[in-house]
Amino acid sequence: MTELDVQVDNLRLELRRGIVVLAVLSQMDTARYGYDLIRRLAERGLDVEEGTLYPLLRRLEKQGLLESEWEVGEARPRKYYRISPLGRKALAVLTEEWNDIVVVMHNIIYGEKNV
User: Fold this and answer.
1) Which domain holds residue 76?
2) Which of 20, 38, 57, 89 has its CA 20 to 30 A from that of 51?
């Protein structure tokens, strides 16, 4: 791996880190456990490691953006997360901000104005 490869990988991780919160919140309309969410995001093209997702879920819950409950059933207990009312409000704001960023970045990268 070249020095450029390492730098690009680090920049890629930095870029992706910011979108994971929006991606997670956008998928939490129904209760989901961690592995289900990892699979769902991967199916949509966003690979998220367990070591990234689980701390994020706990942080979002602590911030009041997610709610959780344990379900004891089949093989082992699972903690299910769902978006909270505060999380819905945050998701709406973040989605609007994301849409604005996409337009701005498109204009910057491709040189178009007021798309």
Assistant:
1) 3-110
2) 89
Q: Is residue 49 helix, strand or coil?
A: coil
The rounded distance, in Å, linking the Cα atoms of 76 and 9 is 36
Instruction: Give the gyration radius of the chain's Cα atoms.
Output: 17
The CATH number given to whatever domain includes residue 46 is 1.10.10.10
Residue 95 placed within a domain: yes
Q: Please count the CA atoms within 13 angstroms of the CA of 7 that sit on its side-chain side.
A: 3
Phi then psi dihedrals of residue 69, to 5 deg: -155, 150
Q: How many domains does the chain have?
A: 1
Handedness of CA 68, 71, 77, 78 (dihedral sign): negative
**pTM, entire model:** 0.86
C-alpha 24/C-alpha 110 separation (Å) is 29
Query: Across the chain, where does the E strand assignment appear?
Result: 66-71, 78-83
Instruction: Report, as an integer, the average pLDDT of 56-61.
Output: 98
